[in-house]
Write a structure and sequence with these properties.
alpha/beta; 30 helices; 48% helix; 11% strand; globular; disordered N terminus; disordered C terminus; DNA-binding
Length: 720
DNA sequence: GGCGTGTTACTTTTT
DNA sequence: GTAACACGCC
């Protein structure tokens, strides 16, 4: 980040349009900003914060809440650029990390310990699995996934127990008890337990209201009702609550986001001001027209129409590759062509997909074309098995009551504590009403006929490793150094190597990621912004952050590859949307659940389109490999909602494709002694599409070099 | 009683 | 590509 002088106060609102300026200048009282895609929303929010600071409001009294860590980080940086660095910066966090802060301070009032564990999806599922076995016994026909969803929905007040979901109720009851016993909370608790504190201990809310005089919420359309209740409670007294949102970009209803929040806000803050931002500063005219016409098919929405002054020709192209490999290759080669000849920087490209599984083939093709890329979201680094194991050790060290973490690592690496021993420990700990860890400790010292000498020795070995570190990690700082020693003591390297007996490559890779994890910890604790680097804070951070954000600094100049959900709030000069197919967009699963989900799926498509500034390339495969089988696919019905005249069908001309397209993989295959790629041996799939302008590959690539996108209007030239 | 091996099905989106 | 399960071996 380049260092810049703080802007003087009066230039803060200089380049804003009338409505934006009004939004920035309305610093007190409740305010609703309806901000369409690309309408300069982030700019308005950050300038509004800067304005508050310039008016003399102390940074720490402004609470800004966003939905994702990425958005929080970006906002922090932009506020920093606009404000006086010597003054306190406002805390900008996600709802969930705000929840962690509240709980860290007051959770003991609810009978939890301060060093509670935070369970992610994987921890939660393994706990539920354990409980289902315990409670339902032989009845293993229950769908744990929908069980988890029901528990979450009930907990956050989205539904109630009824005849239909009642079979999950016993599981839910035990689940709650277990979390409490393990001194653990799940993601829902990070929102729900603060609310419980508000209700039962008024001093908590009093303190928060005193602390935060100004509250801002970004992506308001994606907040759940429980989240809204937190915000409302904190802001009720001072009434300086500003919410910013766009109902057309609501794509998280499956996670509890509710359009009711808007109605609640209107009810709770009747004196609010409302400002609509409808001028789009991002996308070229055709892209915006396409987006508008797609979203107009939704019946359930607030009427608005985005407009722009930015003109450019031939912004939208559609391509129908034979399969996902051709699609991936098309994307990689087009990136190469535009970046090389059009002089567009790689980080100006966004490749978006509906599901994480579509990322892999594209990644491969980018690798093949030697294009630097970064993946956001997807299977998180912290979800990898080898990393989860290390984290489980740390969690157990921080919180010995954490049975889920203990069960994960008690026999990893193998130390002869198998199913029978674990079963015995379970029974004993239930009897003694204490955690597994305490039970193990007690067993080592006491005489108990149920435990053989050998088993006792093995348990002693386990505790012998953990115990010294419990004392050490109690003290903050030098955490990475301690972790390094723990990894040595556990002989993680030997363990990983023994897991891959035949080839050492994956073993090396895995151990490298373990080492990278240690480096991340070290980088985190040495960050001057981190005041007290405790083990708890580190664990809380990695529980809530998908990916280490510091990492991104190093690979700045690379293509972004991610799901549409992860792309919300971002913008790119060139956007590829892969897999624009029926069943993917809209996703078959979503419609299966409820036909009316089609509107959210359409919003998702809308969000994807509106990420593009100058060029949008859509592709729909004619066949796609789904799990084991190759399926014939149809194009997304949403494609028909874009006016014909805006779309140019991209048809590669055969000779070029035949010769070049497969070459990289075929060469690899040839080198490995394999046959030619079988992805060309496919059945001819009819892909009947209304006739649209057809352009050849050669002309397509040539155009990028000569006209640089054919931009004719007021769009600035691409930076070289 | 633990562990290695071979089999299965699973992949919507995320804090 | 992987995680969970069943089976038979040590």
């Amino acid at each position: 980040m380049p260092k810049r002088e703080p802007k003087p106060f009066d230039s803060l609102t200089g380049k804003l349009n009338g409505r934006q300026r009004a939004a920035v200048e309305t610093t007190t009282g409740p305010l609703l900003i309806i901000a369409g895609a690309g309408s300069g929303k982030t700019r308005v929010i950050t300038q509004r914060i800067a304005r508050l600071l310039a008016e003399g409001v102390a940074g720490k009294t402004i609470l800004a809440l966003t939905f994702t860590n990425k958005a929080a980080k970006e906002m922090r940086e932009r506020v920093r650029l606009l404000s006086d660095p010597t003054r306190s910066a406002p805390p900008i966090s996600t709802f969930h990390s705000f929840g962690v802060q509240i709980l860290r301070e007051w959770i003991t009032l609810l009978g939890f310990g301060r060093d509670f564990s935070i369970y992610d999806q994987i921890d939660k599922m393994s706990l539920l699995k354990e409980i289902a076995r315990e409670v339902l016994g032989a009845r293993n026909d229950v769908d744990l996934y929908s069980c988890a969803q029901t528990i979450s929905a009930v907990k956050t007040g989205r539904t109630e127990w009824n005849a239909e979901n009642d079979l999950y109720r016993p599981v839910a009851d035990v689940y709650r008890e277990h979390l409490r016993a393990y001194n653990a909370v799940d993601f829902d608790d990070l929102i729900v337990l603060p609310l419980e504190l508000f209700e039962r201990h008024s001093q908590v809310l009093d303190a928060l209201r005193e602390r935060y005089r100004y509250v801002m919420v970004d992506e308001f359309q994606d907040t759940s009702t429980a989240q809204y209740r937190i915000v409302e409670a904190v802001a009720r007294k001072h009434r300086n609550l500003c919410v910013v949102g766009d109902d057309d970009q609501s794509i998280y209803s499956w996670r509890g986001a509710s359009s009711l929040n808007m109605a609640y806000f209107e009810r709770d803050f009747p004196e609010r001001r409302e400002i609509k931002l409808e001028q789009n500063y991002r996308s070229a005219h055709d892209i915006l027209r396409a987006a508008n016409s797609v979203i107009a098919h939704n019946r359930n929405r607030k009427q608005k129409e985005l407009w722009t002054g930015l003109r450019a020709d031939r912004c939208i192209e559609v391509f129908f590759p034979a399969d996902e490999y051709e699609e991936a290759r098309f994307i990689a080669r087009t990136v190469r062509a535009i970046a090389g000849r059009g002089g567009v920087r790689l980080d100006k490209f966004g490749i978006l997909v509906r599901t994480n599984s579509l990322i892999a083939p594209i990644e491969e093709a980018l690798l093949g074309e030697n294009i630097a890329y970064r993946v956001s979201g997807g299977t998180s680094f912290f979800q990898r098995k080898e990393i989860k194991d290390i984290i489980a050790y740390l969690k157990l060290i921080a919180n010995p009551d954490d049975n889920v973490s203990l069960l994960r690592v008690v026999n990893t690496p193998r130390r002869g504590i198998g199913r029978k021993t674990v079963q015995m420990l379970r029974e004993l700990s239930a009897e003694r009403r204490e955690s597994l860890y305490s039970t193990i400790q007690a067993l080592i010292h006491a005489e108990d006929g149920r435990v053989s000498f050998k088993t006792r020795e093995r348990l002693e070995e386990f505790v012998g490793i953990i115990e010294p570190y419990r004392a050490e990690f109690l003290a903050p700082r030098k955490l990475a150094e301690k972790l390094g020693r723990l990894i040595d003591d556990l002989n993680i390297r030997g363990h990983i190597v023994s897991e891959h007996p035949d080839n050492e490559r994956p073993a090396r890779l895995k151990f490298r990621s373990v080492m990278r994890f240690v480096d991340m910890m070290s980088a985190w604790e040495n960050d001057p912004d981190v005041v007290a680097p405790t083990l708890f804070d580190f664990l809380a951070r990695i529980a809530l952050v998908n990916r280490d954000d510091n990492q991104e600094e190093s690979d700045r100049r690379s293509v972004h590859l991610m799901t549409i959900h992860a792309a919300k709030g971002l913008e790119f000069d060139v956007v590829f949307l892969a897999g624009v197919e029926d069943g993917l967009i809209p996703h078959a699963r979503a419609l299966e659940e409820d036909e009316s989900n089609i509107e959210e799926e359409r919003r998702l498509f809308y969000v994807a389109i509106t990420r593009a500034k100058r060029k949008l390339l859509l592709s729909a495969c004619r066949t796609r490999r789904v799990m084991r089988e190759v399926q014939e696919r149809a194009a997304s019905p949403f494609l028909d909602e874009i006016p014909d005249e805006l779309i140019h069908v991209h048809e590669p001309d055969e000779p070029v494709e035949q010769r070049d397209a497969g070459s990289f993989f075929d060469q690899i295959r040839a080198r490995l002694g394999l046959g030619r790629s079988d992805c060309r041996k496919r059945s001819p799939t009819p892909c009947v599409y209304r006739s649209r302008m057809i352009i050849s590959t050669r002309r397509f690539f040539a155009r990028f070099s000569s006209e640089s996108f054919g931009a004719t209007g007021s769009l600035p030239p691409f930076p070289v």
